[in-house]
Amino acid sequence: MQSKKLKKLLTIVLVLFIFSSCTKDVIVTDPPAIKAPVVPGQISFSGRIQPIFTANCVKCHKVGGVAPVLEEGKSYQALMNTPGLINTAAPASSILYQEMAPGGSMSSFCTVADSDSTYKWISQGAKNN
């Protein structure tokens, strides 16, 4: 009788041992990649904005002409030193952008792409890059 109990006990222990040693492999995969929104490239003052001024504005906006002076080497400081021309906190309220945008007093001297680039440059912090 004792042998049957011992056998039963060993069987139970063996079964418990077998079940406790079983493991389930869990394969963790990376979540699907979330595509970042497309962010337009950084607008360069020297590479994109100054060429607009040079091609379209310096005929009038030069030393001895109409302010602000937009000649190369002088334009960035003239823009930054004239209150209201550049407002990085509210780019659409920047006088420079408003004058260049469709309907602005200088819109006939530049393209919509020019005013869009100027807006983007201002919204990116109006850096002297």
Overview of the molecule:
The chain has a domain of 79 residues. The longest helix has 20 residues. About 5% of the residues have low confidence. By secondary structure, it is mainly α. Helix 2 runs antiparallel to helix 5. It contains 5 helices and no strands.
Describe the structure concisely.
This protein is 44% helix and 0% strand.
Architecture blueprint of SSEs:
Layout: H1 2-21, H2 45-56, H3 75-81, H4 95-100, H5 112-123
Helix pairs in contact: 2-5
Number of helices: 5
Order of helices and strands: HHHHH
Largest sheet: none
Number of strands: 0
Summing up helix and strand content along with how strands pair, one would put the structural category as mainly alpha
Helix content: 40-55%
Report the sheet-strand fraction: under 5%
> Overall 3D geometry?
rod-shaped
What's the Cα radius of gyration? 35 Å
Overall pLDDT:
84
Spans of at least 5 consecutive residues with low confidence: 33-39
Measure the end-to-end span: 94 Å
